[in-house]
Amino acid sequence: QLGEMLQLPLVVTAQVDLLLVLVSLLAFWTRLSHLSYPNAVVFDEVYYGQFVSLYMKRVFFIDDSGPPLGHMILAFGAYLGGFDGNFVWNRIGAEYPTTVNVWSLRLLPALCGALCVPLVYLLTLELKFSHLSALGAAVLLLLENSLIVQSRFMLLESVLIFFVLLAFFSYLRFHNAPSSSWSRYIWLILSGVSCGAVVGVKYMGLFSYLLLLVVASLHTWKLIGDKTISHRNVCVQCVHRVLCLVVVPVLLYVFWFYVHLSFLNRSGPHDQLMSSAFQASLQGGLSRITRGQPLEVAYGSQVTLRSSVSQPIPCWLHSHKVNYPIRYDNGRGSSHQQQVTCYPFKDVNNWWIIKDPGRQQLVVDTPPRPVRHGDVIQLVHGMTSRFLNSHDVAAPMSPHTQEVSGYIDFNVSMPAQNLWRVDISNREAESEVWKTILSEVRLVHVNTSAVLKLSGVPLPDWGFRQLEVVADKLFKAHSSSLEWTVEEHRYGTSQEQKEREAELHSPTHIDVDRKISFWAKFVELQWKMLTVKQEESEHKYSSSPLEWITMETNIAYWLHSSTNAQIHLIGNPVSWGVGNLSLLAYQLLAVVYLLRRRRGLKDVPDGVWDQFVCLGCVCVGGWLVNFVPFLLMDKTLFLYHYLPALCYLYLLSPALLEHAHTHLLRYAHQLQHSLTHQRALCVGALAVLLSIFLTYRTFCPLTYGSPELSAHQLQGLKWRDTWDILYRRR
Amino acid sequence: MAKAECTPKWNTLALRNRKTCPTPEKSFQTTFTPVSKDKNSQTAGLLAGGDTQSSNGPSGQFVARGSIESPSKVLLMLVAGLSFSTRLYKLTEPPHVCWDETHFGKMGSYYINRTFFFDVHPPLGKMLIGLAGYMSGYNGTFPFIKPGDKYENQNYWGMRGFCAVLGSFLPIFAYLIVLELSNSCTAAIIAATLLIFDTGCITISQYILLDPILMFFIMAAVLSMVKFNQQRYRSFTASWWFWLVLTGINLAGALGVKFVGLFVIVLVGLNTIGDLWRLLGDMSLSLVDIAKHFLARAFALILLPLILYVTIFAVHFVVLNKSGPGDGFFSSAFQSRLIGNNLHNASMPEYLAFGSTVTIKNLRIAGGYLHSHWHLYPEGVGARQQQVTAYLHKDYNNLWVVHRQQDNNSQSGNPDLVRHGDIVRLEHKETTRNLHSHLHEAPLTKKHFQVTGYGINGTGDANDLWQMEVCGGRKGDPVKVLRSKVRFLHRATGCVLYSSGKTLPKWGWEQIEVTCSPYLKETPSSQWNIEDHINPKLPNISLSVLKPNFLEILLESHIVMFRGNSGLKPKDNEMNSKPWHWPINYQGLRFSGVNATEYRVYLLGNPVVWWINLASLGLYFTMVAVASIATQRGFSLGQQRIEHSLVLVRGGGLLMLGWLLHYAPFFTMGRILYFHHYFPAMLFSSMLTGLTLDILFRSADLLLHPPYSYWFQRTGQLLLLFSILYSFYLFHPLSYGMTGPLAHEPGSAMAGLKWMDSWEF
Hints:
The structure holds 2 protein chains of 2 kinds.
Chain A: H1 2-7, H2 18-32, H3 45-56, H4 68-80, H5 102-126, H6 131-142, H7 145-151, H8 157-176, H9 184-201, H10 205-225, H11 231-263, H12 276-280, H13 286-290, E1 301-307, E2 316-323, E3 338-343, E4 351-355, E5 376-381, E6 388-394, E7 402-406, E8 420-424, E9 441-445, E10 451-458, E11 467-472, E12 484-491, H14 497-505, H15 518-531, H16 545-549, E13 555-559, E14 566-569, H17 573-598, H18 606-631, H19 643-670, H20 674-704, H21 711-717
Antiparallel strand pairs in A: 1-4, 1-12, 2-3, 3-7, 3-11, 4-5, 5-8, 6-7, 7-11, 8-9, 10-11, 13-14
Chain B: H1 8-18, H2 42-49, H3 69-88, H4 101-113, H5 124-135, H6 157-182, H7 185-196, H8 199-205, H9 211-230, H10 238-257, H11 261-281, H12 287-319, H13 332-335, E1 347-349, E2 357-362, E3 369-376, E4 386-391, E5 399-404, E6 423-428, E7 434-441, E8 449-454, E9 466-470, E10 486-490, E11 496-503, E12 512-517, E13 528-534, E14 540-542, H14 550-567, E15 589-592, E16 601-603, H15 607-633, H16 639-663, H17 679-698, H18 706-736
Region (Disordered) (chain B): 24-60
Subcellular location (chain B): Endoplasmic reticulum membrane
Transmembrane segments (chain B): 172-197, 209-228, 240-273, 294-319, 608-627, 647-666, 678-697, 718-736
């Protein structure tokens, strides 16, 4: 038997698509060669770099520009290169020191950018177009200068595009595979995973993901209508799709945050934006101060009260030995009692003591008597011993609300109204104890049922520009400006004022740390990321979406510190035009086809029509979802935001050309000119490809930053007046 | 063709509930119009089949087929009666200005006084209010200064009554629309009941506001569109034309009141596209026929509304010919047409010269005049020098004197003209400070430089020098007053004088920030023109050449309106309403009164009605999903079920589309939003509820057997009616006024009704 087996030849049959290999190699060459040049911070590297450094140091940060996966990928690249996070990203053009491995920082985006090219090739095949079309699409992407520039630096667009293409490719692979094969579910899962990655890299990816879901549900709808399949089978297939395309991406999205939060466990510059509980979960920062504090607030506790609003800045309830001015600038009068404000810095004057109204003492009993929801308390200012008071006097800056003061008896028949009811708004039980850091508390003024509120208006000079605190009668259940949390806390031990002052000056004690669940942190972080408002900034190279279509703008990414060598984000104008033309042509053709089909004239057979519709759904749909949302955005926008949309156009152009070649010119056949027409089309396409290659070559110096060009040559590259190309005076 | 067949069972039942119970005495023979010529129209047949075949339950109560229309008419009368009585009840209470009456009442008065004003909405609504006031004897003298002002002896009831009457039509229209879409009186009556007894709809109809007028036109447009759809088999007949043209007129009306009218235009547009698509697929029609259809619709739904809309503006401009508070928002050329404006029939020197006193207006629309005053920038905001701002109103502090670089003394003889490229120094006439800029960051736009007033009596420093450039001009070109666009380039830093359009905080009197921008892009923000020009040494020319033509005025007023709209940004301290608040009735609006002692009116939907609507939206989606999956999977459904799913998908789809179109766009809007923006969407949502719940009740036989399913249907309907009526009884003080303690205090009339903490009554 062994002898027989030996007689059989050992054969490996492999099919290698040489075209695919060729374009892949070219893609790697264009994207990866001389990756560490220029050895300086280029454009938005200055932005992403700071987060990479923070990852390396495991310091918590919050970035509203996108979910954490993108940053993590960049950080992973840095980690591979042994980056230790010790580089200050403060200026575009700053030279990297030799300790920073620039190549590894830029490697992952460049790899993603290079892989986009073979992916586009494969995707065109999955859209059921020929290898020639696939080659065309790959070449368009390969020779697109703007994509090359965007891939070669530590930026996220190429990563986004890679995952979007991967998601579509693997979904279509799944869809096109025969329904009997089980291996196709691997493709479906891969598609779900890429969708999770797409949304995890940038929020804009959400729209591509939704498009994929729409395509998938259209396909599923057809499946439901297929009466040859049993009900059970349909159910199973639907469940599979939902699991892979909805559940998996959602779980992955949460998973990115899980990794993000478990990595970043040290306190950092953005702590202040988060709630006290969140801050306390980070090492250093607040947790260093609050560790070991007693959990339950009791009568006699010394506390600092932080407002739950972190806009404009986080602050603590504060008072000091200065009174409200008798008359304000506008002539209104005040109570002239002691000012109560909100102060954005840690200060000994932020300490308040919780007092039982029925008793005199300011120390904690043994055992401590905890304060519960609904209890009435008084708040005594630690340093001045004034009681927190409110009354029917208009507040200084918000006259429709009540003034809050530290009560001084001027004997002007203005009695003290210093009782406050504790209202724990995030309580779980009615008799819940007031807890340090965890409880969000409203202080309801007993006499007037107004609520202590941070109005957030800065006081004038007499109030040292601290923030105004008022009592507002109008309940608004949602407003976080009404909520206060106890941040620093200790049990008071000294009854005498002098001792107490000394006690307040001493730091709080130490001990166990408190944990909040991952979900609470995730929800808070996600909410903050979506709501943190950044100052709307104007940028020299910002542009409006309509300028992108015609490429009216460019972005200067880098300029050599002494020579004219420079890198710009400029697309290949010829490909750009080809893309726009094909978009227009597709729409025209689709309208004509649709109208004619409605009248019963079928220009193309049904199979071809389906292929045509699918092409439109993916490419034109993809362009739309990646472009239209920008028109509605208030953000500062840049040309590179258009790149994902552009890729869809490059996918569309060759496919549409093939469609025209094989189906449209069939009519010309009857006119006996078909061959000439088809030949003309081929020649035209070749000419266009050639000119694309030539323009690519022409703009190469601006894409790769070398060789350096003379001012005259640069002038020649300024194809549009609106482009901003830099010249250095010699 | 047959429409509006009711289940007679429900009719009598419903009527009995209302204690009106008119037995259909006159069983007049309804003349059914023959169901079109072509018998192919299956859908018509299906729709028309209606409920006559749906004989679930005991059939003892059938009424003769001929008399079917009569109860629906009686019901219509009932709806109308209830609607008018709820809206007109206590109309004149409270006798003071409530909420936005302060704006729209004031603007009505402006029409009566023919004073020009600026508002972000198109003029039709306010014109109608003005007209109603005029007809009812209001003389336009009440100032409408702030909410809470007593009307005293003014005739304000006419304006309120007009709005209330239009608001009363909404339930009637809803009834008719749903009847048309579902062929079921039950559905129609549910929809109408929801609207009649909704406190929100009552409140918003009772005051001088644009919303009742807007909603009237929206609903009228939808109604005529639906009626027009029913006429599809009688193309080009008189009634076909009537409903088509009426749709167009109502569209113009809706757009003429508020830009929200665009949404209903989109709705009608989509419906029309669908309609044309259907016609295109109808192979019995020739292409010429289709072209006719297309042209008829293009005329009635595009051209006609456009003409009407433009006419409204024409009337607006003709009526308002006196200068008023809105002048400063418009360009200099625009102002020259207003009687009483200083540019009206004015004459001034044509070319700018050194020594002239001028006002300088930013070219951004609603850009304001370059302004300064005796106030310094506060500490911490750049250098502590005098503020320079842009100010929308005309004021003595807008005057600047153009000086040469050095000399300050006036020369004798003809002064030299200022030419492109000349270096000038601008001295503020009132405070004698020079326009100045330096390398401090601007107060709001941090990347720009601060602009201040500096120096005294014309002595300053090199930072006071500006190079004046005429846009598109060459060296030596003179600067034409009003017509030249000029830029001021700062000599020392190279930046350009710029108005960012951002409003300064209180220290800057909420005027507009002026900066010096280092980005030299040519935008209207960095371009200015010379408006007033006083120089006794130069000959004056008449400015009547500048008068813009009607189209220019129209265009400009639209740009100003859009700018104004997007400029309504929420202020920092203000709690603003979010779109997701609205369907859950999260928070209302105070129309009148805050404290316990005052007469309070609070705009809040009847929570029961609104939550039923919300639940029905979910229900609708579920039902449609179930129905369409069943169809797609090829389950065999009964005839009746197929009709139900058709009504759900077609009629319900139209209403759902209407709801989406009137709701979803608000999520993308950056401007400040209020609760009352949801009301048009709420109308659609209520109609959808009527349709959905009706079909839900009728589908009871899916689960229960005949007698029980019939009982279930009845119980459901009764329960719904009762809960709406009872909740209205509970919440009616919201609309008709409350006094006494607030709801969270004991002893209040509304005690226990504050179901959500966010409600403020």
